[in-house]
Amino acid sequence: IQAAIMAVIVLYIFLRSISTSAIIAVSIPTSIVATFALMYVSNMTLNIISLGGITIGIGMLVDNSVVVLENVYKYHSKGYSAKESAELGEVSMSVMASTLTTVAVFIPLMFVSGTIGQLMRDLSLTVCYSLGASLIVSLTFVPMACSKLLVHEEKNEGNLSKGGPLGKIMDKWGLALEKLDRGYRKLLHFSLRRKKKVFIVVVLVFVISLGLIPIVGLDLMPTMDQGAASITINMPSGTVIDETTKVVDEVMDRISDIPETEEYYIMAGSSTSSMLTGTSQTDTASINLTFCDVKDRDRSTEEIVDDIKERIKTIPGADITASASSSAMGSYSNSSDVELEITGDDLTELRQTANDIEKILKQQSWTKDVVNSSEDSALETTVSINREKASQYGLTTSAIATTLSTAVNGSTATTYKVSSDDEIDVVIKADDTVVNYVSDLQKVTIPTSRGIIPITDVVDIVTDEGATSITRENNQRYITVGTNLNGVSLGDAQKKIGALLSQYSFPEGISYSFTGDVETMGDTFSGLILALVVALALVYMIMASQFESLIHPFLIMFAVPLAITGAIFGLFITRNSITSTTFMGFIMLVGMVVNNGIVLVDYTNQLRERGMECDEALEEAGPNRLRPILMTTLTTVIGMIPTALALGEGTEMQKPMAIAIIFGLSISTLVTLVFIPVLYSTI
């Protein structure tokens, strides 16, 4: 809604006419309602992705209507009637070509695999639907509305001073636009006579922007503030539940006055199962916290989590970690930012390597919350049967196991019938005061053919630490070492960890690989790069068919790399990294930036066909097409501002994409207006 209102205001400022602005203002909701109908047919729902696609589409869907309206108005200002202007101003081929170049870049995005591909499908379809609907509206509704409404317009559009203060302001703005036209004409004249200098400046800007890529960094997805966090408490193995609960109470005492907390949920202990008995792991606990809405608090979830860490770090006798919950990839996750999978066959060497890597990571200033899965162990008591002694007493494994089970759990000897439908199990077991601790198992006796003997005569009872689970991949054991990041991007962290581990001497048979988000990021970016290449090819083919030339589309395509470097520059200024959604912005720029070039080059070709010299045609076409180019650019750029500011919850995902489009489109427009004419003239 904000994007639509801002787009209409921009159009009014340029057109300086309420009726003509109203035509496009009506075309926006018309196109959106048609988009909803197409979404319904495709079994799509309204969610932050599909609504994000509509938001992106709003800035672009007025482009077609603006081109048609501007052309109709041009004929009307020459003295033609409103109806004649609507018929003569028909520019269906040009509008269809510019729409197809934009739609073409979204088609490859629908075929990107994985979770990112599923997210992109909704966004791509909504943008394609909204642009398709806007094309139909611009070729049907806009000319019809012009034929009716332009009748009431005075031909001298600039004479608005009768309208009071607003009219005077618009008059001054009209004079400013005329100055802008004259200034651009001078700049174009100056540039066309100093082609080498223009080339040098453009190449320098391009190289500098490319140099910013390592500084900007790579991430899989933008961080989303979900307003949720979790605290995990790990006590020494075997700690009783009462002691664990005391630590939980201590943690809650320290964080209870955090003002942003709305709800919390505590679970002390976790259920596990055993062959002998259903037991409870009493040495762990978790606290899940939910915070109030983003607009109702001054701190981000990450800042609140840092505060929690500071408050609980001095609690003794427990390993306590706190982390923000994220649902950027569609499911809540508390896993580490970077995860390493260390594989090998020798468990001792595997554990030692994992411990060494854990120490290396803990020494770095850009890592925090380093975790090692080999530390996940629990006290376990192993009862080993001495088969030789057992056979001397005539005892079987089953008999020994049954005796131990009866002592610990008891065994059901019979059932006592209270009534016709009520029975009670009669369980025989040792008194709890006799068998309460592991050491009490030594008191258990077992009957043999030689009499009753202590069970320790035929078994060895050993208590030691054991792994809670054994993890394997491709028949190889592995241990995971993970870390969260402090002020560095995922891509930078991968490079730094790779450099650190290249200096580490791995034992024979032990290797490592990046998993989790790093692995997903590699696969996602590979798919997106392929989508970008396909989008470039499709856009070039569409323009080649429109111009019936291979050179003119080639000239226009020069705006694309400069738009992407402009987007990188914008990310650098706003301190955002290149994410998968940002990359989507790069691909979208391919379809957006060529539209301005199409308008400029197409009109230049028309003027040359009328007999004008090349430079003369460029100096005439540039100022003539300046206003529609500025209008279409500004409606898209300003329409993106609410998304770039991430004013609503859940909009963080599309924030870097909007920033990339705003900066990329703005810089590419400047390039199109100066560099493309210089390149055209040179070739």
Overall description:
- The protein is α+β, with helices and mostly antiparallel strands and 683 residues long.
- It has helices at 2-15, 18-41, 48-77, 82-88, 92-109, 114-149, 165-192, 195-211, 213-216, 241-255, 301-312, 347-362, 387-393, 397-408, 490-502, 517-547, 551-556, 559-574, 580-609, 614-644, 655-682; strands at 228-234, 261-273, 278-291, 319-324, 338-344, 367-372, 377-385, 411-419, 422-428, 445-448, 451-454, 459-467, 472-473, 476-485, 511-515.
- The strands form five sheets. Strands 5, 6, 13, 14 and 15 form a five-stranded antiparallel beta sheet that branches. The protein has a four-stranded antiparallel beta sheet with strand order 2-3-1-4. It has a two-stranded antiparallel ribbon with strand order 7-12.
- A hairpin with a 2-residue loop joins β8 (411-419) and β9.
- α16 (517-547) runs parallel beside α19.
- It is elongated, with a radius of gyration of 35 Å.
- It starts with a helix and ends with a helix.
Biggest beta sheet summary: 5 strands, antiparallel
Helix content: 55-70%
Q: How much beta, percentage-wise?
A: 15-25%
The count of strands amounts to 15
The outline comes out as: elongated
Distance between the termini: 44 Å
The overall average pLDDT, rounded, is: 82
- Indicate the low-confidence ranges by residue numbers: 152-162, 272-279, 328-333
Write the layout of secondary structure elements.
Blueprint: H1 2-15, H2 18-41, H3 48-77, H4 82-88, H5 92-109, H6 114-149, H7 165-192, H8 195-211, H9 213-216, E1 228-234, H10 241-255, E2 261-273, E3 278-291, H11 301-312, E4 319-324, E5 338-344, H12 347-362, E6 367-372, E7 377-385, H13 387-393, H14 397-408, E8 411-419, E9 422-428, E10 445-448, E11 451-454, E12 459-467, E13 472-473, E14 476-485, H15 490-502, E15 511-515, H16 517-547, H17 551-556, H18 559-574, H19 580-609, H20 614-644, H21 655-682
Antiparallel strand pairs: 1-3, 1-4, 2-3, 5-14, 5-15, 6-14, 7-12, 8-9, 10-11, 13-14
